[in-house]
User: What shape does this take?
Amino acid sequence: LVWRRYPLLVAEWLRKDVVDEILEGMRRDKLFPAANGLIKNLVATKIVLRDSSPWIMDIRLNQMRSEDELSVTGRVRFVSDKDAGVELNIVCAGGINIPVKIENISVETWLNVRVHMLNQFPFVRVVWISMLERPRLELSIRPLSGVDVMHIPGLDLMLHDLILTAIEREIVLPMGKIVPIDRFMPDEYYHERGHTPSKTDAYAGKVTVLVAQTKCMLHPSHTFGASELYIRVQMAGQTFRTMPIVDTLNETLNERFEFWTSLADEDEGVTLSLVCSSSEGAIEYDSVELGTIMVREVVDGLWMEPEWVDVETLRGGNSRVQVKCTYNPLQRSLK
Assistant: This one.
């Protein structure tokens, strides 16, 4: 209903918060230059929506892991109608810009949507969306200027593969798209304490941390049914927490957190700790440090793929946590 009632607003949101972030991720992951050096960059200029909207073919309500989370899995298909599509500028070698329109889009995939709820208005704190598989994608490319890109051998196929790679790196598990209802709203549950970004801060970029999976999280004070386990993630005075760990032997979390950082923070580290507290939260036992990832390593491009960190501080052995970190520099500081 929102898709059809407010197509201009939805199109602008898709361009800024989805397509632009995917393209920025391609730059961050150094996917450019592509097509043997022909494509230097891609810039989204406009998204056009018509009457066609996503079609949900199957939907399943997943088991709730906490009282404030709703998790739904569904198979979704979208086929664009006439004149709808994404307008791009292909920046080629030599500074040549070729405007094109991606149209006749057909995409089908399994989506996982997790909604984190609030007990007061606006009742939804954040929505987390991820594809469970690489999508089936079909599209066509139409030139918007006198230069016919179809005369460049293989360019349409190269663009198709480039778009699929970008989607896989940014939206397919273990990655995902976070849609905050209020981008800087203080969080009493996941954001335990720490600095809330403001426009007066001279930040250089964001460090994104994905806590994907844990194995053998056996805290010495944990008692099944009487206490709660979670991972605390900290950096430069900013602190977040994951959802509770239900399966201590092998848990899939796929929790993603963003830390604002300045250049001075490169000597800081992202610290992960296993926290055990009573079920009511009244008592917090001594936390166990799982490991530290230096910010300078993230800035240098390490940790871009999920890596297992062995934990020597927990009993029983074989304790591990899978982590992925990326650094996304801001085009300008917030100051």
